[in-house]
Every structure is written in C-alpha cells, then in structure tokens.
Amino acid sequence: MAAISKIRIDGFKAFPKEFELVLNGKNLLMYGENGSGKSSIYYALHALLQSQYHDKGAIYFDKDSTESIVNKDTTTAEPYIEIELEGSETKYRLSQNGYEEIPHQPISPLRDMNAECVFINHKFLFRAFSFRNSEYIDLFPIFIKDILPFVLTQDNAEYIGTIYDDVMKGIQRHGKSNLLEDSYKKRIERFNLEVQHIINQINSIVSEIYNKNFRNENERSLKIVLEFDDNRDKVPLPNKSYWLRCDYRYQLVNKAGGWQLKQISSGYEILQPSIILKIEEEINGTYQPIGKPQTHFNEARLTAIALSIRFSLLDIIAAANGRFMALDDMLISLDMSNRAKVVTFLLNISDRYKIYLFTHDKTFYNYVAHIITQKGKSSEWTFKRISYKHTEKRPLVLDDSCDYLSKAKYFYELGDYETSAIYFRKTLEQNIGERLPFELKTRADGGFLELQTLWDKFIKFYAHNGTPIDRKMQKIFSASKLLILNPAAHFQRLVNPIYKLELDEIFKLTNYICGLSKIEKQLILEQGKTFVFQHPKENYNCSFILDKDLVIIEGEHIVAKIPKCKNIKWEYNGVEYWNFELQKQDLNNPLIAATPKLTNFIDNMIKKVPLNITQKMFVENCKINGISLFDFVGNIDLLKISIKI
Prior knowledge:
Oligomer: single chain
Largest sheet: 6 strands, mixed
Helix content: 25-40%
Distance between the termini: 61 Å
C-alpha cells in the first residue's frame, strides 16, 4: 500500500472550487489560522477513509441533506473528495455517488489503509475527559466513534464498528418469541470478544508508552488500565465495566425500607457496554488507585494519558506501507514542553506512519519545522501554509519551502501587502545578489550589503559589462524603495491603494531582474602574443607582449590573473620612443625596460599620453594577430576588476 501523493477537494466544506494538495508521499506540516480550511483537509481524509466502514457519500454530498457538508458557494455540479497514491493514477473518490475507484480495482488498498490510519483532533481529547467530578470515566463512547470504526477484526473480515452497527439496527428474535436469534447472539458475542482483544492489546503497552514518552521527570509513574469485564449486575454500577448485552433493564427501588430489583422494561433492550479507565499512581514504591483521574490530574497529564491509549494501537513494528496519522490541533491545551514530548514521539515513528500535522499555532508550527530540520528530516516533509481569501471565498495554500517570489505573490493575492512587500524585498536582495560576484555583494567583514548598496553595485556592474539596466526599471526602484523596499517602513499600517499599485510595479521590476542572465565569462589571452595599438586619429602606435596568460573569471567571484607587459615599444609621427614631455626621442626612457602590469600600463597610457586615449578606444583599436582586443574582452572593464592576483 503506497502513501498518498495527491489530495483533491472540490465543493467540500471550505473548498468551493477544485483544490489540489501535492504530498508526493511525504509527511505534511500545515499551518493555518482558524477558518483557513486546514480542518477541511483533515475531514476530507476522514470522510474518504471512513467510507470503507460506512459510506455516507450520498448524504454528505446531497445539498438537501441535513448532514450535507457541501460548500454553500460552490458551483461544482458534482462535489467530491479524491486521493491518488504513489506510483498509481487510480483515483479513490467519494461523492454523491458514494465511494468509487477510477478505474475500478479488484482489491481496494483503502480498506487496509482505513484500518491502519489514525485520526486525532482536539475534540477526541476533549471527549476523553469531559466528565463531571462525580462520574467515572467511561471511554466506550470514544471507542465507538473514533477507534472501532477504524479497527479490523482479528481475522480482517470486517471492522469492529460494523458489528456494533449491525447489533444496533434492532433486536432479532425467533419469530414472535422473546428468544434471540442465534446469529444475533453470536454477533454480540463477537463484538465483545473483539473489543476485549483490543483492550488487552492496549493494556499490555499503554503504561509503558506513557511513562517512557510523556511523563515528566518530577512526576510519578502511572499504571493505566482499561477495564472491559463481563460483569452481570442487573443494575450497572458506575465504577464497573460491562459487555454489550441484550437483556431486560432493571433498577433499584426502595420498598418497605429496603432496596429491591425491579424490571422496568417490558422486553429485551440493548444495554450499552462500558470501558472504565482505572489509573494507579506510584507512591513510595507501591501503586495507589486514583478514584477520579479528571479531578486528580491536570489537563496536560490527562491529554498525555488519552494519547497513550490511542497510540497503544499503533503498529510500530511493521514497515511503513502508506498508513498515516492525521492530527488536527490536538495539542492546543498543552504548553510547549508537553507538546515537545508529543512531537518527539511522532517524529520517532514518522518512518512507519506518515504524519499529517495541522495547527493554527504559528509558534508551534515553527517549532516543529525547526525540530524536523534539526533532525535532518526536511526532505521527508512538505511544509504548507493555508489562508482564506475572503474576496474569492476560497483557501490559498503556500509551500513554505518555496522561494521568496512565490511567497510575495501568495501574500499579494491574500491582500496582505505589507508581508508581500517584505518578501519582494527579499526576492530582490536574493536575485541581485545571485547576479553579483561575491566580492561586490559583501562588506569587508564578510557580511552582506543592504539592498540600496547592492542595487548601486548591480547597476554599475552590468553597465561595465555591456548590459545596462533599463532606465524604466531604475525609476521603479527609486520610486518604490522608500515605501516598499525599505525594511524600516514596515512598522506602518498602509492601506492606501497606491501601496498595491507600487507592488504591481515591483512585480515588473522583479520579473525583469529574474529575466537577466548572470554574467559569467572566462577570458584567456595567451602569453607571448603581441598587442598592437594604433590610435584611430593620431599617428601614434604602441606594442607589447604578455609575460604570462591573461585570465579573467567572472561568476561567483571575480579573479583576474593580470600579466606584465614586456618588450614595450611605441612610436609617434614616425619617431620611436617619443617623449611627449620632452618633445623628443628618449632612448633612455625607463618604460623601455620596464615590465608594468597590464592594467597599470593601460591606465598610465590613458593618463600620460596627451592624445585623448580612452579605455574604450584602446580596447577597440588594439589588435592581437589582427583581431581586435574587443572581440576578446567585450565590455569587461579591465581597470575596475575587484581582485588582481
């Protein structure tokens, strides 16, 4: 059985339009405020899987049904819930037509998936301990609603909840007699034995799970026991457990100063079972019974006990097979230290159960994401953020591991322009930084530069390399930087429509920069080549050769291996080694024997030869074996290379 690769929802609960959540077989951590739609995803999975036990598609997707959970704003003709599994294009769907497989499969994997998957939300935990102080804790209502519909019988023939439903349909008798049909009695007996098997399984491990995973160091050990005994009391006692029975109903009445049994039903009735929680606490080496756990323990310990009971049914031995645990805001009443214990437990079993964790608490979301990253498991998870776009009456989902630009667009769509602007600023910082060599985007201490400085260097760098930045884009940056691109401006609450318009402009600027190619060049001019410069207007020329290769690498870094010039010769108006300062030939000029670096030689020529020579003129009119130097270096500014080795 493969894990879920995609979830699709259309017209169900919070989703009026088609929605797709891509999981690709990974665990899911999703943050969303209340009303964002995250619980709708949880209930979509719950409804689809529970259709294997009780198919309620015709009811849930009937707009006229009192149990309808079709979105009131949907225009979808046939709302549905649908999943796909890894490695398969089969669609497992629940709609008004009920449960379907498209195309039909001879053996449905969802039957086994439903039997092994776990759904826990805050309502489950609330029901587990919402008892008055005077009451004993009877967990059967929780079992029949949240556990038994998902547990197969020992022979895997049916769900235990199905047996209970059959019994509750009505008492089956022999004809008109009061005797029960043998098949009916066997169904009751089968139910009781199957539940007893489950209770025994829980009791064998629940105390260990609690004490090992959830007990604080300063707390006493607990012995947790669920009682499910076949007590035969005519009048059930509140502190005792009972099997499912079909019998007369009795009550105790006071008659003549004494208590007597009185039959109060005219015939057989179905008497509900009870599963009583009993807890003992270790005190001085012995375990002492706790009469009413709900009055003795705080909410954190009660929650830990409830989770320990539910986790006792997990199969943490078998290899992972696509089964999952869906957990929706189940820890809202716990402080972070107690939540951390649950998170640790979940991450420890995430290699055997997929974890789908939904929360409205952003601090908790960030904490879980941090722990996942810290454990090196980020690649096994997908991180999502869901928000509700009220103008379109639909949820929007963001992949929290996506790039800054995607986040900027996400918050823009939501109308959260302040947050969108923050991510636009990060987008620009990132994209400009990616297009600048390391030496241009960092300070002397190794730290990264602020956006304005990056922008200035970016403009110059691209201009020097023959790709000047569009003037319109420069104007957009200048016009927007104070309001949007300045981090100090985000303390303001700006609601003026111009704010949205300026974001629209930043969209244009961002797209423009993203479309710019990164300047990556490698230039090699071999040593021994003769360079000959001929002034285009004056009768002046010079020549030299390089003592080693000229190498310029531009990419993540600018590194230039600048060679020296030798065999330097020059001529003006037919006179070799003309000295412009002395206005005559100078055969003793030190430059004749000198070996200056190429960059220094070019710079001195520009500054000292009074013939209006520029770098551009030199590059365009200097030739190597008849080929212009410009064809080699293009628009590289040889005099502004950051590092010269």
